[in-house]
Amino acid sequence: MTEQESSATQSVSMRFGAWLTQFIVPLWVFFGAFSKANGATAKSLPRSILDAGGIIGFKDHYIWLLVLLIIEFIFVGSMFFMPKLARSAATLLLSTFLLVLVVEMFGYGNYESCGCLGEHSLSPMMMFAIDFLLLLGIIIFKPKPMSCALTNCKMGFVSFIIFVVITTWYSTDRILTERNSSSGEVTTLNLPNSWYPQDLGSWDGKSVDDIELFSWVEWPEDIRVGKQYIIFYGMACDHCEELLYMHFEFDVQFPTTLVAIPESKEEFNEDGAFENPCFDCIKTRLPLGVDWIIGTPMVIALEDGIVRCAIESEESEYPACLIW
Predict the structure, then answer these.
(1) pTM above 0.90?
(2) In a 3-state reduction of DSSP, which class is residue 230?
(3) 199 three-state secondary structure
(4) Cα distance between residue 299 and residue 211, in whole Å
(5) 11, 86, 242, 300: least surrounded by Cβ within 10 Å?
C-alpha cells in the first residue's frame, strides 16, 4: 500500500470514527433515553438498577429513573455538541451499559427484556451485542483529534446547555406527571407509586400477614387454610397462559387464586386478555394506581397461610413452586 493510499484509508477511518462517536452512538443512546422518558414507567429500569438505587438511597423509583435519564442526556449532549469529549463519553457510557447487562443476565437471570428502549425493549443479549459492536467500533476507529476555536467552543457549550435543559424539562414533566397520577385505591390503601418483590427468597417461612403485598389484595376468606397456590399474572402474558393451560385447565387439586396485574397504572389489558382456562380458580386483582414491577407469572405456594415457595417468571414445563 502506497503512502497516499494509507493516508486515504486513515482519513476514511477517522471520518467513520467521528460519525460513530458524534452521531451514531449519541443517536442510539438518545433513542433509548427518550423512549424511557416518554414511557415514564419504573418498569423500564432493570432489577439490578432498582436494587442499586435502593442501596444508595433512592427508594422512589420514579426519581431514580429521572436522575438516570438526566445523566444519559448529559452524555448524549456531550457527544453531540462537544467533539473533544465525544469518544471518551461514548466509551464510558457504553462500557457502563455492557456492565449492567452482564449483571442483569448472569446475576439476575434476566434474558427477557432490559427496558433499555422503554416498554418495547429488545432482549438483554441483543442489546449487549449492539452496544458491544458500537464500543468495538469506537475503539478501532479513532476519530481525528479536534481543535477547538473559541467561538466554536462557546457555541457547542451553549447548544449542550440548551439540549440538557430541554431534555431534562421534558423528562421531569413526563415522569413526575406519571408518578403523581393515582387512583382512589392508592389513597385508601396507602400504596406506593411503584413496587417490586425485593428479596423474594426471604418470603419462605413467612406468614402472609407479614408480607406487605398481601395487605393490598382482597383475598378469599380461607387463604390461610391448608395448601394452596397464588398466581400473579398478566392478562396478556403468554407465559402465564401457558402455565395455566398446562397445570390448571382440568382437575385443580388445590385451591388456587389468580391475581391479575394491571398493565399500567391506569388499566388492565382487557382487550388483549387470553381466555383463562382455570374455571375453578378464584380471581382477584391488584389495585390500579401503582407501577407493579413483577415478573409474571409469580407463583406462591402457601400452607396454612405460610409461604413455602415463591418465584417470579415461573417456568411452565418444569415449575419450581408447584410443589403440592
Answers:
(1) no
(2) strand
(3) coil
(4) 15
(5) 11
